[in-house]
Write a structure and sequence with these properties.
Elements lengths: L5 H12 L9 H14 L3 E3 L5 E4 L6 E7 L4 E7 L5 E6 L11 E5 L5 E8 L9 H4 L9 E5 L6 H7 L6 E4 L4 E3 L2 E4 L2 H20 L7 E6 L15 E7 L2 E2 L11 E6 L7 H14 L3 E5 L7 H7 L5 E9 L6 E4 H16 L1
Helix pairs in contact: 1-2, 1-5, 5-8, 6-8
């Protein structure tokens, strides 16, 4: 087994995090991935709608390994009369998971403004009791306050901020005692693992057992990341987070092999192949099921009508779609299983 390069994986994760990529705003992060693939000497193509497909070599029936680059976030819905921004979610972002978070507002002219997600009213000391007990709601009592001297919608519009502008949350990545705490572990940590596998294959010269594509998708969070596939793809493997919870087997120190998500079971035969690869390689793994609110890009490929087998793996991850946490062990085991499966 080619050792896991922890430093490279973390460096790759941080490079991806540095590019804001709320679903639909993919150009910057796509450019970062293309730069990293250039550094690795890997050929690739970009998709018209956004996304990168790299050719890793090999022969025979093609496998697409996908990890997504898009993040959940917000969009400006309208400009409030007091100069704050009414916002709506992009992807599965809930207000209770982003209150008081710092943000960057990206205008369509390329300007970037900072701000904060706030309650309305924003100070607990001047909030009536009934309002204190009210759950946050993007439509009624949550807004984004810009770090600008604005007092009206006209002031905000003069900055160039308008309805439809993208809002990215601050990732706040930190690593402590092996635990990685950050927004967008889903799925930039998994994309970093995929890049680490590509690098290991390139540097070791280890042969692939079949033709393999690395597919960096940019619309997973809204369901159509891999609805288009290259014609020769016969199997698709998603590398995505495995949410932890009271009734889940998933563990931040292990890789999960997905048996089923909220839509349907994963392919029995392909899932068994992954399990066999994990056992043979001595990988720390668990089998798990993710319902009622989880899916991967594999689901989009199946629902688009592609005749492919589909499976998914990923590191156990806490606080999904919030300030997420996983462990380097989980990334290491995901790397080990993916590498073992590609070369078995």
């Amino acid at each position: 087994m080619i050792p896991f390069d922890e430093a490279y994986c973390l460096e790759s994760f941080r490079r991806l995090l540095a590019a804001d990529s709320t679903t639909g705003q993919y150009e910057e992060v796509q450019a970062v991935v293309c730069e990293m693939l250039d550094e690795l000497g890997v050929s690739y193509t970009t998709l018209r709608k956004g996304g990168v497909i790299a050719s890793l070599g090999g022969e025979g029936e093609a496998l697409a390994v996908t990890a997504h680059l898009d993040d959940i976030g917000l969009m400006v819905r309208h400009l409030n009369a007091d100069g704050t921004l009414n916002v709506c979610p992009v992807g599965g972002l809930y207000p209770f998971y982003c209150m008081a978070e710092n943000v960057r507002v990206h205008t369509r002219e390329g300007k970037v403004y900072t701000g904060t997600v706030c309650r309305t009213p924003n100070s607990i000391h001047v909030t009536e009791e009934e309002l204190r007990a009210t759950a946050p709601d993007f439509r009624s009592n949550v807004c984004v306050v810009l770090d600008e001297d604005v007092k009206s919608a006209a002031d905000v519009r003069a900055l160039g901020v308008e309805t439809g502008d993208m809002i990215a949350l601050e990732p706040r990545c930190t690593v402590s005692n092996g635990y990685i705490k950050s927004r967008f572990v889903d799925d930039k940590a998994c994309a970093a693992v995929l890049l680490a596998v590509i690098r290991a294959l390139r540097e070791s010269g280890k042969a692939l057992k079949r033709k393999v594509y690395a597919y960096f998708a940019v619309y997973e969070e809204i369901g159509h990341g891999t609805t288009w596939l290259p014609e020769d793809v016969k199997d698709i493997l998603a590398v995505d987070i495995a949410p932890t919870g009271p009734e889940q087997n998933s563990d931040e120190h292990k890789v999960s092999i997905f048996a089923k998500d909220s839509r349907f079971p994963y392919h029995w035969g392909m899932t068994n192949e992954l399990r066999e690869a994990a056992i043979a390689a001595g990988v720390g793994y668990v089998m798990d099921i993710f319902t009622p609110h989880y899916g991967t890009d594999c689901d989009g490929s199946i629902l688009a009508g592609h005749d492919v087998r589909h499976a998914a793996i990923g590191p156990g991850t806490a606080n999904s779609h919030g300030y997420e946490r996983t462990h380097l062990d989980g990334l290491r085991n995901t790397y080990a299983l993916l590498l073992a499966y590609l070369t078995r």
